[in-house]
Amino acid sequence: MENITVKIDGKSISVPKGSTVLDAARAAGVYIPTLCHMDNLQSIGACRVCLVEIEGSRALQTACTYPADDGMSVRTTTPRVRSARRTVVELMLSAHNQECTTCGRSLNCELQKVARQLGIQQSRFEGEKPGAVIDESTASIVRDSSKCILCRRCVTVCRQVQGVGALSPAKRGFDTVIVPAMKKELADVACVLCGQCVSVCPVNALHEKESITDVWEAIADPGKHVVVQTAPAVRAAIGEEFGMPPGSRVTGKMVAALKAMGFDRVFDTDFTADLTIIEEGTELISRIQGGGTLPMITSCSPGWIKFIEHFYPALLPHLSTCKSPQQMFGALAKTYYAEKMNLRPEDIYVVSIMPCTAKKYECTRAEMESAQGVPDVDAVLTTREAAKMIREVGLDFANLDNQDFDLPLGISTGAAVIFGATGGVMEAALRTVYEILTKETLANIDFTAVRGLEGVKEATVQVGELPVKVAVANGLSNARRLMDKVSSGEADYHFIEIMCCPGGCLGGGGQPIPTTEEIRKARMQAIYEEDASLPIRKSHENPAVKALYDEYLGEPLGHKSHKLLHTSYTPRSQYPETADEEAVSILVE
User: Fold this and answer.
1) Residues 490, 440: contact at Cβ < 8 Å?
2) Suppose 90 and one of 26, 123, 278, 404 were both cysteines; which one would form an S-S bond, judging by CB atoms 3.0 to 4.6 Å apart?
3) DSSP string, 204-273
């Protein structure tokens, strides 16, 4: 690759031809603030915070969009540059809701960070602020336009990474807003509630709808038996909220913190991840041997489920009928566990700690409650919310002694742990399906072909005499590629795993912010290390799951398991059902 030489503040640096000024500055170790830029996704110069002075150019230029040229000389800290950046940020602050001390992103806000770096302590500009709209229409995400800085990151990630396009800029100038189509609320458009917009928002214009108050009230209620389940991806990420390096394995500390907070029992979603593999693996075998609908597609990711319901409803028969591990756990907590503890289902309050904002929506679905109207899961906390609660009670998380999950719903295997990484559900299923079909012990249980952060992975796994063709996709734009192949009849797979978020649950919309490619890799490494360290690594060897079938469920895909652990899906529209004249008058760009 051809290189060019650029001077950044007098320092010569060699960079590949085609680099931007921002790329060159980073290579030189020079910090240039940005608010709208996202590596490999968006360089639009919308925020104007990365202005620099380029020799020979009369105007200041945005470093994220301006192409570097051989022999170019760039100045990043001249009085003119610093003054322009300060003015830009002060103008942003003049239109911004500055309730920083009570904001959920305080001390982790990129606007706050840039203002502090530029030495801004107050804005010189006072005047009218844009009208504020707070959209709380969904169970998962809150949109607060009073904090939006119009960086368009949410628009880009929704369109390019997720292929959904639920948000767009509308109107012009001072009146510009980021809104769903036709000025609808998020609940009325084809938003899948994945929370990737929340993850990339530099401020708090998008955030999860918190359930913290509800959970504290349940813990304080003497009439409630409050149990909590923790998803596999949470243990590889929650340490980041307490200053620990990404990828720190903190399972025991997390359990200790939750017990100290007052939960009656601390259980592991990995228990029902193992159960999911038994049910889903048996379902796959049944479809292959009985001529059922193939390829079968996993159903663990609620954002993915909402996506296929909106955009590919004709393909719903391809979905596994299994509930997600979160919902299986809730159903068992209020039946199997309730009977063991001699408790009424309505007196058990099930809390989930998930890396996902869509899980908040999933637990509200009508399909996810008993015939008596008792929900499987009562409240979902994101990883971030759980960390807030731990801080609230003053626990020194990093120095807590390790504790174990409670029994009986706390026993799990390595196969369940890897659910947190893209490809993990597929790998866990293959470990079980292979041994059930062949009646042989699998020599090497690490299916590395389905691991990694690539958008789409394909493999053929020899299971006895049957070559099983599988595919894995993470990120919904990649899911589209596979679904288009299925729709056209080109896909000859037996089994497809779809994870809504890039990197799978490790990169979920409820995980600590920021979530970068390197952070995803570190979390993924932690997940696979935990799998390798466990004594049991195959779901069908989980002794607690075996006991569950012996004592309660009977057999996989049996009458009782089908009633408790399986579900159905709902075809949905891609478009708002109505569009009034006012909405049409603000057609998006």
Assistant:
1) no
2) 123
3) SSEEE---HHHHHHHHH-TT-EEEEEE-TTGGGTGGGGGTPPTT---HHHHHHHHHHHT-SEEEEHHHHH
**Per-residue pLDDT band at 129 (split at 50, 70, 90):** confident
Instruction: Check if 128 is active-site.
Output: no
Q: Which of 147, 359, 457, 538 is catalytic?
A: 359
551 is catalytic: no
Distance CA 477, CA 484 (A): 11
Question: Is 103 among the catalytic positions?
Answer: no
- Which structure tokens are listed for 50? 């990365």
For the chain, the average pLDDT equals 95
Does the active-site annotation cover 110? no
Told to judge if 412 belongs to the known catalytic residues of this protein, a careful annotator would answer no
- Select which of 55, 217, 339, 367 is catalytic: 367
Query: Is residue 416 within 8 Å of 537, Cβ to Cβ?
Result: no
Whether 367 is catalytic: yes
The fold of the 3-93 domain, in CATH, is Ubiquitin-like (UB roll) (3.10.20)
* Every domain of the chain and the residues it spans: 3-93, 212-565
**Is the pLDDT at 374 greater than 80, yes or no?**
yes
pLDDT at 499 over 70: yes
Q: Is 392 a catalytic residue?
A: no
First to last CA, the chain: 37
505 is catalytic: yes
